[in-house]
Amino acid sequence: MTYLELHISDAASNFFLINKKSLLEYRTINCEIKKISGINSFFTSQEEATELLENLSENQSVVSEPNRREYGDFQTNEHLAFRVAEYAFIQKEDVEFVLEPTCGKGSFILASIAQFKSLKKVVGVEIHRPYVWETKFQILTYFLKNPSTIKPEIDIIHGNAFEFNYGELAKSTKHLKTLIIGNPPWVTNSELGSIESKNLPAKSNFKKHSGLDAMTGKGNFDIGEYISSTLLKCFQNHVGIFAFLVKNSVAKNLIHDQKRNRFNIGPSEKLNIDSKKEFNVSVNASLFFTHLNKEPDFTCDEFDFYSREYITTYGWYKDKFVYSVADYDESSEVEGKSIFTWRSGVKHDCSKVMELERVNGHFTNGLGEEINLENDLIYGLLKSSDLKDDRTNTFRKLTIITQTKVGQKTSYIEDEFPLTHLYLNSHKEFFENRKSSIYIDKPAFSIFGIGNYSFANYKVAISGLYKSTHFTLVSPNDSKPIMLDDTCYFIGFGQLKLAQIAHYLVNSELVQKFLKSIIFSDSKRSINKDTLMRMDFKKAFESCVFEKAQEEINDLEIEHWEEFETVIKEGQLKQMTLF
Q1: Alpha-carbon span 471 to 503, nearest angstrom
Q2: Are 492 and 458 spatial neighbours (Cβ–Cβ below 8 Å)?
Q3: In the Cβ-directed half-sphere of 394, how many Cα atoms lie within 13 Å?
Q4: Chain centroid to CA 352: how far?
Q5: What is the CB neighbour count within 10 angstroms for residue 372?
Q6: Which residues of 130-169 are buried (b: 16+ CB within 10 A; e: fewer)?
């Protein structure tokens, strides 16, 4: 049968058919259900009980599902929930109190009841009312089928996890060995706000960002992270376990912020799951597992959830936040500040007009138009996908470079390059429709990520989109420097040998180990300027031997090696920016 849009098991249906008269007084049926299952206040009003009574003879129908996006709703299948509860049981089999703050259809609660025979109290909170009922009926069904199982006191509460008073619950359960378990929403507050969801926490700067950070992107946070931090703060002094399925970014941030929060938790584990298999979504996710009421720990061991194979230990080490403590321990001598400023490439946000290909002596744009242009402002262009080889001086695409520095006036183009101006001006609507605020009040056809460094003949470049820490040496084509787009990072040199030595250093075993030790490969942009600026070229240079470098770099002479040494020493002394 169905009730409140959900299917009720035959066992539960038969129970209510047998007890139809008791439904006329909801307190009476509540007492009977309490004896059987331990659930407090199964019905909260007579209207609810009467509605069930009226539906006992109606046909079944399909359960309506909520907007997955609004609730960040990825319901955990029974098998995964059982394995998570089983893992918790292995760690602590005498759990007395289970809390699931976003209990959904109750998979974790049921798995915990089945695992832990020492349970005394269970609390589940769920905002979607049909799920509250489904959880209650699932629990009732379980105890109807397993009548000899010990029955804890159970409260399944229809409410918002962000408004629930966890502090009071923590006080009242302080004496109980605790398991906090679940799968909080995999969504950010800005995503929920964009669809006008009411399933949001009260506006707060819970990470305590200051100034501009609090107003911009860093003010955005993951709902699962918010709930996790709130619960760890409230229950950190309980004896027990915390086990949440979360996005990998949440597991990373919980350990990162542990330096500030200093919650009484540890040791911690991150067990990677196959979210495509478990939830049919392409999200990097894991089980974040930690112990409560422990000395604050600042690292986390990462494993595969299914094989338990060890992967790495990440977290705070030598006062740095790193992905691999072991690799960082062996390569931290490279930690410092790069004297070469890593730059991102050219940004124009107008690829259909600004990016070209050369076909049969003509230029072709992204609109399929054949055009004639002067060659002067046209440069070869490399994107992240082009930085695969060890070195290159070829390109697939070309781009128009309208400025030599940000903000430069572009009126000169009309006088000096009339064909280029005619072409750009005929497509000015594409430039005017660029959404980024960086183009407001800037000269016509403006670009960004441009400066004298862009015109360096030799560049040591890396993709900012991919996970590889491989660097490519980019040389000029037909005496003209090749540009990189804004998905790439690079440092520039005027001399080939200096560029070759820098390229050799960043691809050296020590520097590669260092980069792999600090880069979280599952981050959205795992390679960025901040990461690259942590490479100290002076330390990397001192770790290398000229003779070995000479084996790798053709025609390398000792004077080239000494010149590079002079450059990096002078750069440190003068705090200069080289390209």
Answers
A1: 7
A2: yes
A3: 4
A4: 31
A5: 11
A6: bbbbbbbbbbbbbbbeeeeeebbebebbeeebbebebeeb
Q: CA-to-CA distance for 534 and 342, rounded, in angstroms?
A: 10
The helix or strand, by DSSP H or E, that contains position 560, with its residue range, turns out to be helix 558-574
Give Cα separations from 40 to 44, 122, 175, 230 (angstroms). 9, 10, 21, 25
Helices 248-256 and 223-235, axial angle in degrees (round to 10): 40
Whether a cis peptide bond, with omega within 30° of 0, leads into 201 is: no
Strands (E), 293-354: 299-304, 310-317, 320-322, 343-344
Q: Which residue has the tokens 């980024």?
A: 436
Q: Which residue has the tokens 């809390």?
A: 99
Which tokens hold the place of 522? Answer: 């599952």
Contacting residues for 340 by C-beta, under 8 A, at least 6 apart: 491, 502, 537, 571, 578, 579
> Structural domain boundaries of the chain?
2-55, 68-317, 343-574
What CATH superfamily is the domain 68-317? Vaccinia Virus protein VP39 (3.40.50.150)
Report how far residue 288's alpha carbon sits from residue 286's, in angstroms, rounded to the nearest whole number: 6
Which DSSP symbol is given to 258?
H
Which residues touch 363 (CB under 8 Å, ≥6 apart)? 356, 357, 370, 371, 372, 373, 378, 398
How far is the C-alpha of 121 from the C-alpha of 38, rounded, in Å?
A: 9
Describe the chain by its helix, strand, coil percentages, rounded to 5: 40, 20, 40
Selection from 135, 38, 126, 163 nearest residue 78 by Cα: 135
- pLDDT in tens for each of the 579 residues of the chain? 655 566 788 898 899 989 988 989 999 999 999 999 999 999 999 999 898 888 765 544 434 444 444 444 568 899 999 999 999 999 999 999 999 999 999 999 999 999 999 999 999 999 999 999 999 999 999 999 999 998 999 999 999 988 999 999 999 999 999 999 999 998 764 444 433 445 445 545 545 544 434 333 445 568 999 999 999 999 999 999 999 999 999 999 999 999 999 999 999 999 999 999 999 998 999 999 999 999 999 999 999 999 999 999 999 999 999 999 999 999 999 999 999 999 999 999 999 999 999 988 889 999 999 999 999 999 999 999 999 999 999 999 999 999 999 999 999 999 999 999 999 999 999 999 999 999 999 999 999 999 999 999 999 999 999 889 999 999 999 999 999 999 999 999 999 999 999 999 999 999 999 999 999 988 777 899 999 999 999 999 999 999 999 999 999 999 999 999 999 988 754 434 445
For β-strands 343-344 and 355-359, DSSP reports them as unpaired
Strands 488-493 and 458-463 turn out to be antiparallel
